[in-house]
Fold:
Amino acid sequence: MSEDLSTTGPTRRTFWGRLGHLLSGEVRSRKELLHELREAAAKELISRDTLAMLEGALEVSDLRVSDAMIPRAQMATLGADTDLPTILAAVVDSGHSRFPVHGDDKDEILGILMAKDLLYFFGKTTPPDIRTLLRPAALIPESMHLNVLLSEFKLTHNHMAIVVDEYGGISGLITIEDVLEEIVGEIDDEHDEDDEIPRIQPQADGTTLVDALTDIEDFNEHFGSRLPENEFDTIGGLVTAEIGHLLEPGETATLGRHAFLVTAADERRVLQFRVTSAHAD
Structure:
């Protein structure tokens, strides 16, 4: 007698085969499609992680670059006249491979520096002029839809783009990782925060290393200070907002009675400060 495939078939299908079988009926709207996908997850035909990814893929076409970009105030860039040791320190501290490079004006993006292009100069006596190493910077409008940008990234093999507003001014930057995270959720790597490492680390010289993601409430409690807690959650957000731009490694900002020396930053945000306090606020 022939085998009844009505019971054994579905378990043998690939995921895409099962999904095609599930959606074999006429789906007339995105709402209906989402309903069918959620029903499939409820019946364990697809996993919850798969459902979340499919929902993200559907939603990304509704999002614009302005919804996912890193704002200009939080951009970490390198000046074109930055010396090689400072550049190398920024590369090592951040762990990232691409850095927007600006001229005298931070709104003047000259190009993108690839960290790997610096390898040729290791052991050389003549430091490079980083202007000669720059790759062209892709400029995109903040109104572009994310699904269109993802196609652009795939077509051009770019991993980063500079975002401009309707007047041609720099409004931020966006990476391919930012777009993918809208689909699959937060992507952790070896440079993301380790919750096991204390965010506030007193040093032998009397200074304190402070993670930029430290809650302002925790900062105030540790230092006995009274920095405002009502508008921002983290010390990095507060300092960035007060200064008006994202400080680069080696730069110092003063807030209240605290001096914040940036010891690490990437193209998205400040990562760590070395804090010196005269006394409590």
User: Anything to note?
Assistant: Residues 113 and 134 are 5 Å apart (CA to CA).
